[in-house]
Structures are given as structure tokens and as C-alpha cells.
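Moderator note: this is an archived Q&A kept for reference. The question asked for a predicted structure of one protein chain; the sequence and the answer are reproduced below.
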Amino acid sequence: MDFSSPPVDNITMKEMRLQGRCLCAQMVQVSFADSTEIGATLRTVEAVLEDISELGGCVQVEEPIPLGAPMTLAIGESEFMGHVCYCVFRDYGYFVGIRFLDDRIWTREQVVPQHLIDLKTLARLAS
């Protein structure tokens, strides 16, 4: 079963986020329900946090994660629960989007990922 989305042209891909994102690069852990014919098991894998916003984030992993799967993103001691909203293979790994639950939004007061770059601030400085 193929859980990945078809290839996406990054130039024409429409931005679906409602909130601005911050780029980052930090090793994190993601846990998700991995369903098989026997049943569901909870799996935890290492991932690279690529970006984050109040409502969700994107991680890079080595294998696909099913769309809609419940998922927890652990950044240090902070955890953010949600579900997988996309999974796309690009070049050397799977980029998986997580949509946080309404009561688990991310804020800088909770945790600041390593190498955080706020694109809004960067754009303001460039103009």
C-alpha cells in the first residue's frame, strides 16, 4: 500500500497553511499509529523538524506515514498531538505534515526549536 502523495511541483504548489511558518532544523521524535493486518501498533521514529507554525509542522522521516494517522511530535519535553495531513516523497525522504489538535497549538513560549527562522521577520528585514 502506497501512502505517499504523487510528486509535487514545488513552484506551482499552493500554500495551504493559514498561519505563517518558521523554518527550523532539529532532531525530534514522532510517534504514530502504524496499522497492519493484525492491528495497530504505536511506533516512534527519529525525524528532522523542517518547519513549524501555530497549527502544524513538517517533519522529514525515512518511511511513509499513513494519511490521517494520529501523530505526536516531541520537541524536547514538549509534545504536540495531531494527525498526518500529507506525506510526500522528495529526493531523499518523506516530508510529513502534522496538523495539531486545536488545544495543542505551538507557541514560542512552550519551546523554541533549534535554528528557528521566522519567515515573516526575514521578509520584513529584506524589504
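Archived answer notes: The radius of gyration is 15 Å.
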